[in-house]
Amino acid sequence: MVNLSRDENLNGTPAPLRAELRDIRDEDLIVMVQEGHKKAFDELVARYKGRLFSFILRMVKDPTLAEELTQETLIRVYIHAAKYREIAKFSTWVFTIATNLVRNKMRQRSRRPRVISLNPAPDDDEMPVDPPDMTADPSEGIHREELANLINDATSRIPEKYRIPFLLREVDQLSYEEIQQVTGLKLGTVRSRINRARTRFRQLIKPMLKNETLLEELERIEARAAEEKNKDF
Amino acid sequence: MRCHKAKECISLEMDEHLPPDVTVNLTEHLDSCAGCREFRDDLILGRRAMLATTPELPDNFEWKLQLKLNQTLQRTAGETAYPWGEPDHDRWRWFRNFGTAAAMGMAAVLALAMFLGPENTFVGTGPDSGGGTPTGVAQSTTGGAGDSDRLPLFVDQSRRGGLYGVGSQRPVSSAGQPRSGNGGLFSRGWSGHNSEDLRTIDRLRLQNGLLSRDLYQQQKLIQGMRAQLDTTDANALDLEQE
C-alpha cells in the first residue's frame, strides 16, 4: 500500500498517481481524504459514482434528480469525511447516506401535490441535440433502450420497502450484513424482502423473458461488456 | 422440500447464503421440479438484465460535481467566518428596516405635535385677580347650578392636565395670563414666531384680558340686576319711576 501522510502532501511531494490509488482499499482512501489528499477522493468518486447513480436512478426514476442526489451524496462524503470511523465498511456508509437522501426526497415528493402539465410534449426546438452514432446499428439501440425501459419500469413498480434492499443487493452487490446496516433491518427481514422483491420482479419482467429479440439483445450487451473488460486488462 | 421453501432457498443460493446441506436438498428438488427450475432461471436472467442495463452517467458529471463541491465548500467557509449569517441572507432585515421607519415616523409625529401643540387656553380672568393679573380662578364649565343655559366664561384650570393639556384644540385666546405650571407637558406649545410677533401676541393678550375683565364686570352687573329682579318679583317694578 502506498504510504502517504499529510506531511508529505503539505511539503509538496508529488501526490500519489491514480494507478497507485487503485490498489488501495476504500477505507484507507477515506482516511487519506481525512488527511487532505484530494486525489484519494477522486478515486473514491471514480469507484462509486456509477453504482450510486444506478441505485439512485432506479429509486427515483428521474435522471436529473438522480444526478443531483448522487452529487449530493459524494459531497456529503467529502464534507463529513472526518466523521467516518472504520466500524463499518465504507460502502455501507456511502449507501446509508444515499439511502437517507433518497428516502427524504421521496417523502418530499409524496407530500407535494402532483402537477400535470397541459403541454407535456416538448417542442422540436426544445429537444436536446444528441447527434446519432453513425457507426451503430439503429435497431440495436432501440432494442437496448426497450430493454432498459422494461427493467427500469419493472424496478420502479416494486414497493419501496422491498426495492431498497433488492437494489442494494442486485445493483450495488452489497452483502446481506451491509444491507442490514444500511437499512437498519434485521437480517431475516433483509433476506425475506430481497426474496419477495425478486419474485415480484420476475412477474414484472415476464414480457421480456418471452421476447426472443430482447434476450438476444441482452446477450449482445453482455458480450460487448466482456470485450471491453478484456481490453482494460 | 416443498416448492414454496425451495423458492426461498433459490434466492439465498443466488447470494451464496445457503448452507451446504440445504444446497444438496435444493439440488435434488430442482432435478425433479421443472417449475422451480424455471423460477431460478428467470431470477438469474433478471439479474443479468439488471446488470446489463446499468444506466450511464450524464456528461460532465465529474466537472459538475467539482463545481458543486466548490460552491458547498465556499458556503461552508462563509458560514464559519460569519456564524451569525451573512448580511445578504438576513431574514429579519425587513423587520429592522420597518422598525427604523416606524421610529422615524414616530419622531416626526412627536415633532409635529410639539410644533402644533395646544397653548394655554385660559379664557377669562378671575374677579380677585389684582392689577389685572389673572390667576386662573375658574368656574365650572357648566356655569354652576341654574346657569345651564349660559355659555361658560371660564375654563376649569384643574381640568387642564395630562400630556397635552386640554387636548388637541387650538388655542382661541390666552388672555395674557402667565404660563401656568399645571398644564400638560406640551400644553404651552411653541409658536415659533419672531420677537415682533411675540410682542404683538402679548399686546393682543393684554387687550383680550382687559376685554375679558370688562365682560366679567358686565356679567356681574347683569347677575346683580337679575337678582334684584328676582327679589322684586312680588312688587312690580315701577318702570316709570326709573
How would you describe this structure to a colleague?
The complex is a heterodimer of chains A (233) and B (242). Chain A is 69% helix and 0% strand. Chain A is mainly alpha-helical. In chain A, helix 3 crosses helix 4 (38-60), helix 8 crosses helix 9 (176-183) and helix 8 (160-170) crosses helix 10. The longest helix of chain A has 23 residues, at 38-60. Chain A is globular. Chain A starts with 5 loop residues before the first helix and ends with a helix. Chain B is an all-alpha fold. Chain B is 52% helix and 0% strand. Chain B contains 6 helices and no strands. Chain B has helices at residues 3-14, 20-32, 34-52, 61-81, 93-116, 195-231. Chain B is rod-shaped, with a radius of gyration of 51 Å. Classes of the chains: A mainly alpha (233), B mainly alpha (242). At the A-B interface, helix 4, helix 5, helix 7, helix 10 and helix 12 of A face helix 1, helix 3 and helix 4 of B.
Number of strands of chain B: 0
List the chains of the largest interface with their residue counts: A-B, 41 and 31 residues
Question: What kind of sheet is the major sheet of chain B?
Answer: none
Helix-strand string of chain B: HHHHHH
Structural class, from helix and strand content of chain A?
A: mainly alpha
